[in-house]
């Protein structure tokens, strides 16, 4: 591939660029395109494909390969790509010959730049390089693990999300990708982040496998005070499930990329909050200090859970954020946005520090992203396998929570367990717990009498004389 002149590159190169950007007024990046490309529809944009024969490092048989995304459709922003080798960074130069265009217009310019890139590695078979990660659009990126398909996304940073004001979308404006060695298990990517309010630098050490891990370093340099910042933001889709099928006319039992928010808080409590497709936007905040982890998870893993032979939602990854170091006080925020289809992401989760970020300072957040099918935090606790809600007696709502794993198998079906249920309003009646012969786990069930309440926070946990046997189930019921 064609490359420009080399420059020295080190660990502080991108943070230094971010600090310099933050010291100046923000300037919008290059989003100018030839008219034919600027107006290209989605189907024509999909016709533009990178030539796999020109994948970076393919001829050298290195353990990773790189392919680029063309600019167009929603992805007009120019993103500069650089290749790093032996302490030198060289710009990767665009050429139309890198792509096949199909029915899409072929540009005549040789200086259009790229929209992003994707990483390939032999994750499922030793003789085939699968696409394992992609960076495309604003600060979005996503990845897969072994045997999984693309689903939810991560972002570099979220600003004013769900705030009732215009959301700001920071952009990755440049990447520096380190050349892997012949026996490398990881590939290192550096990213420069910019927006009107903040500049930043990120470093990802990406290790594909049965669980694909991004060891992530984030450095932020605010231009202005940031009161509504989202660290390690995750974005997903939840349309419907057994707990909320009102108005749904669909042959499938469930449709979602993620079915719950998982929390492992600083006090050592493991929490499961099923997702919801609300009638109006709702935001929940889970206060914490020194969080141990949070994530948007996809727990249902059987084809019959979705019965979708095309989308295969049972193969969408979960994404778990593991903070490294002390993140102090703040809250995990969950934003749920109404959606009438499965094509728009409507779920966002992130960490928000309690104290606003001040202008002119540096802030550091290190964390590990786990793209996986399952992730265990406290394996001794039973996990929520499903939440079902339907009509009860005299206008009540019947809530059923299925639990599996943990100590349940050791305790046996004759164990003396109880369902501890709490509601912020209304009345809980007939709370019971019993072994579930159909699943081999246990079931908690109760009736909620809402009375005049329009919104009720619910909490349930399965207990024995020693304490919790299950993780904590949380739910927001709305009329």
TrEMBL record:
Source taxon at top rank = Bacteria
Name this polypeptide is given:
Glucans biosynthesis protein D
Q: Name one GO biological process term.
A: beta-glucan biosynthetic process
UniProt pathway: Glycan metabolism; osmoregulated periplasmic glucan (OPG) biosynthesis
A Pfam family of this chain: MdoG
- UniProt keywords, alphabetically: Periplasm, Signal
**Signal listed as a keyword:** yes
Q: Any keyword Signal?
A: yes
Q: Where in the cell is it found?
A: Periplasm
Please state the protein's primary subcellular location.
periplasm
GO cellular component entries? outer membrane-bounded periplasmic space
Q: Which SUPFAM superfamilies match?
A: E set domains (SSF81296), Galactose mutarotase-like (SSF74650)
